[in-house]
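thread: overnight batch results

M.L. [08:02]
morning all. the overnight job finished for the chain we discussed friday. pasting input first so we're all looking at the same thing
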Amino acid sequence: MKEKSLHILLVEDDKYFRLGIKDILHKYGVILEADNVKDAKHLLKTQKIDLALIDIHLGEDPLGIEVLEYASRQEVPSIVLSSCDNDEITELAYDAGCEHFLVKRHFRKHLEPYIQNIIKNIQGSLLEDFFKRNFITQDSETIKQIRSLCEINLTGKTIFISGETGVGKSLIGRLLHSLNFDESAPFVHLNCSEIPENLLEAELFGAKKGSFTGCDKDRIGRLSQADGGILFLDEIATMSKNMQQKLLKAIDEKTFYPIGSPTVVKSNFTLISATCEDLFEKVSNNSFRKDLFFRINGINLDIRPLRERRNDIKLLVKHFLKTSPRKIVVKKEALESLMAYDWPGNIRELLKVVEVLTSSSKGVIKRVDLPANILSKNVDSEIEHSDSEENPLLTNAQKKFISKNGLKSYMRELEKVAVAMALKENNGKIAKSIKDLRISSSAFYRVMESLN
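M.L. [08:03]
and the structure it wrote out:
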């Protein structure tokens, strides 16, 4: 993160503790100080304050609550630093408007990431820009999940991102890096499926010169490179079980040995794992270690495929056309065909198709100008639609149910029936049921809860 010219109010009656805080925060801007409620309110009223750090107990009483309430009315974000271990006081602080309640004894280790996160929110529309420029979507559920993830301080935690190939998992990883780390902190990306098995260990952990054939110099592993930042392991499901075991140990201990080295290496990295495969199924068939799965499966995000958010297709086409140096016109019937296609390669596949269209000799794209695989899929859809008109999907009983209870109620009941049937057909195997239903694990468990 670049240095900021912020005005930070520090409300604390212990002058020595104030010195410790100022030692951390001086690089972010101007520090204004107050050791009582009156002075704190005066500064909040007369000065431009971007962030307030407030001690709950100013003297013997929890007078910091009053300052919190005043700061909230002034729309100034605040963080509480306190030695108090009282749940009632903590609840009062959150009710008064504080963003985070941190204990003093760990402030040197934990305060700065929270400060950085709030600064990001104060100083810009990083997420808004992300959804406009990088991850184009108007899908409310997807936006909600990403926003919720971005509100968490992820430093030192493990994050797991699932989703089909081409949905933008690495884009999410870079967003999380920009929200949680200084710009100088490393973001190390490794696609495990692209590295041969016999070289993956050296790639991850490093190696000493001469430790194996072809190793003609010392190699620094990706875990070492990620020290103080993020290690993004894409397609982690492709790892062998032997490599999984070694990775698990490194994640737990944050230490490891490069190949051929007797010296232990420490690396304090935050791990983001990603895969397009069904890890539930791989765990159930014993091709992925259960202990590693539970270790990386801490904070989860499942990105829905493009076929489940078809309205985004039109947005993405317009976005890709806008960024192209050559302008073309895509006719309505062609756009409708693009929206009807399932896009197994998701956003990456759509981008390639638009690039082909803008590179063609035609300036006006009609339906017949689309790639053959998209046209053939549309023909199949038209045949299915024709069949459905002769054999309606809804029976008279179902139509009556919808008329009486509403479509949403019918859809909820339909989900329950579908999940129950899938579980019965698969003898209770969850991973196989999720695969057959072609839904995310989070959607499956949501329906399961309603069944229970």
